[in-house]
Amino acid sequence: MISGSEAAAVFRPAAVIFDMDGLMLDTERPAVFLWVRAARESGWDIDESVPMSTIGLNEANTRASVMETCGPSFPYDTVRARLIGLCQEHFEREGIAHRPGLLPLLDTLAELGVPLAVATSTVRSEAMEKLRWAGIADRFTAFACGDEVARGKPAPDIFLLAASRLSVDPSACVGFEDSPAGLRALAAAGIRSVFVKDMIEPPADVLATVWRRCVDLSEAIRLFG
């Protein structure tokens, strides 16, 4: 259920910015499993909590988090390369599923004439490939990707870049996120956040920054009615 009163929930944004993995695309669950598999193939038996702790982070911050947890001898580059290959094989074979309610929400925002952007920690080449596989790349006016900013989430840079590319003030935007890092980034950018849970429940201090919480993306349609 949408948190807050229905009357207070309605807001017509100048633009909407979406995270990608775990928010629009059901890619986090297979990626976590494949992280564990890729590490095991290199002789490392890591727990799912290791890749889970990197959800929402860019490549540099992911590397730092994994190396801090696993230690300096962890073969990060080898495991990362294998992970990319495994993910590509998986998504080519299985496709990329949308998170529930994605297309109805995108359709509603299109009918309202609201411009849309993607702000993802994934590097641009991989992000565009995923969006094309998922059949939604042409839904968006602008893209801001993990390799296009100096600081990744939870810094606000990627959302500020997305708003800039839409030529919209951040305060006039709404941003959708599923990760604690992404929600922190939206708060730092001065953007109203909508939290839709995928795999992680954010801590209380992060939830306190959230504008609205929805069970799924279809429920969020009411925010703009």
Walkthrough of the structure:
The protein has 225 residues and is α/β, with parallel strands linked by helices. It has 2 domains: 149 residues, HAD superfamily/HAD-like (Rossmann fold), CATH 3.40.50.1000; 67 residues. The chain is built from 10 helices and 6 strands. The protein has a 6-stranded parallel β-sheet, covered by helices on one side. β2, α7 and β3 form a beta-alpha-beta unit. α2 packs across α5. The mean pLDDT is 94.
CATH level-1 class of the largest domain: Alpha Beta
Q: At CATH's second level, what is the architecture of the largest domain? A: 3-Layer(aba) Sandwich
Question: Mean pLDDT, rounded to whole units?
Answer: 94
Strand content: 5-15%
Characterize the biggest β-sheet. Answer: 6 strands, parallel
Order of helices and strands: HEHHHHHEHEHEHEHE
